[in-house]
Amino acid sequence: MPEPDQSGSAAPPARPKVNIRTPEVMAAVQAQVESHYRSEVVERLRAAGGVISRGGVTVRLAKQFGFCYGVERAIDLAYAARKVFADRRLFILGEIIHNPEVNDQIRTLGIRNLVGAKPEATIDELTAEDVVIVPAFGAEVETVRRIREIGCQIVDTTCGDVMSVWKRVRQNARDGATSIIHGKASHEETRATSSHARGDGAGHYLVVLNLEETDFVCRYMVRGGDREEFLRRFAGAHSPGFDPDLHLRRVGVANQTTMMRGETEEVQRRIRQAVLDRDGPGEGGSNYRFFDTICGATQERQDALQEMLAIPMDLLLVIGGYNSSNTTHLAEMGVTTLPTFFIRNAARMESADRIRHYDLHAREEISSSGWLPDPPFCAGVTAGASCPNNLIEEVIVRLFELGGVSREQILAEA
């Protein structure tokens, strides 16, 4: 009997599962991953309570930063797949995570990308002998179904927190409730979640990016409005056949797991209030539902940064891929408090006077001067859940170097 696929419906017979996490394979994987991403400097900073001062330069490292369990698992599985299926072609459905250096490393393993701006192959080119890796964000239901029908071996690295959201939105579909998803409609995770919100094909979803869009939806729910204007505003962010006059009667709020908890909670509160204002406390209570599906690691990093921002510092460096949602939110938190520079890697720190960094408003990398004060100064450092320790080390070392302190001095006992 066919086993259920990720949408919960019957799927074509899949290839027998292969256990790629044997002790022998994982021991080799751990050694390889550690050689690529381990950092002696980061370990020293942690041992020092997250603070090191040398030669007038003080660096504070957030208590929670960098790789989370889901990211580590995804990378481990990709490395393990390469070892177990050494004689097979390996492909991946996009980026394993949102970090360009890590994705480049995955590419050096001979794992080719099937989707994105510059795909190295297409799904139509796959054969039953190929292996396909599903990244940590997950993948759209129809994409996975096509690959399974071809007969490929699938290595699924989807984060457990993401799959928890899928479970909720599929339940919404079964219960006739539209999933209002707080997220970025073009993000891989939200696209995957949206596909699961379709359920058996009859379910509906609407993606809201922020509180402004949420308020627009709330006004429509309570007062009605121009249906065509609504659909134009949310073009590309709703399910096929979505009708705001029909499909906002019963709603369930979900989210992309890497959004800001406070904003998601406010989205939930405003949607709930709109339902109650429209339907009253009786019927309104049955026409609204929500579940807490913010990623724990995302919240831990946000909480750790909030704690660090309460300590006087001269600047903050946020490290990670510019397309990383959770890293972007860390940068958004920083800019409200002190000079904050969102950088991909240490190479962006060109000199003590000039730095290239991502501008959250312009949505592009820009160059700024006069960013680093003369010693003595205190700099905070944090990184998104997709940033490896070796990149964090390179930034910290470069920061000290620009203040006249060598790597050897960093590692020397105080």
State the major sheet: 5 strands, mixed
Fraction of residues in helix: 40-55%
Rounded to the nearest angstrom, the distance between the terminal CA atoms is 65 Å
Number of DSSP-assigned strands: 15
Query: Average pLDDT value?
Result: 92
SSE order, as H and E?
A: HHEEHEHEEHEHEHEHHEHEHEHEEEEHH
Q: What integer value in Å does the Rg equal?
A: 23 Å
List the total number of helices.
Answer: 14
| CATH architectural name of the largest domain | 3-Layer(aba) Sandwich
Contiguous low-pLDDT stretches (5 residues minimum) are 1-5
Highest-level CATH class of the largest domain? Alpha Beta
CATH superfamily of the largest domain: 4-hydroxy-3-methylbut-2-enyl diphosphate reductase, catalytic domain
Strand-pairing-aware structural class: alpha/beta
Proportion of residues in β-strands: 15-25%
Domain unit count: 3
CATH topology of the largest domain: Cobalt-precorrin-4 Transmethylase, domain 1
- Global outline: globular
Secondary-structure blueprint:
Blueprint: H1 23-37, H2 40-47, E1 51-54, E2 57-61, H3 69-84, E3 90-92, H4 100-108, E4 111-113, E5 131-134, H5 141-150, E6 153-156, H6 160-174, E7 178-182, H7 188-197, E8 205-208, H8 211-223, H9 227-233, E9 251-255, H10 261-286, E10 288-290, H11 296-309, E11 315-319, H12 325-335, E12 340-343, E13 354-359, E14 364-369, E15 377-383, H13 389-402, H14 407-411
Parallel strand pairs: 2-15, 3-4, 3-5, 5-6, 7-8, 7-9, 9-10, 11-12, 11-15
Antiparallel strand pairs: 1-2, 13-14
Helix pairs in contact: 1-3, 6-7, 8-10, 11-12
Task: Give a quick rundown of the structure.
The protein is α/β, with parallel strands linked by helices.
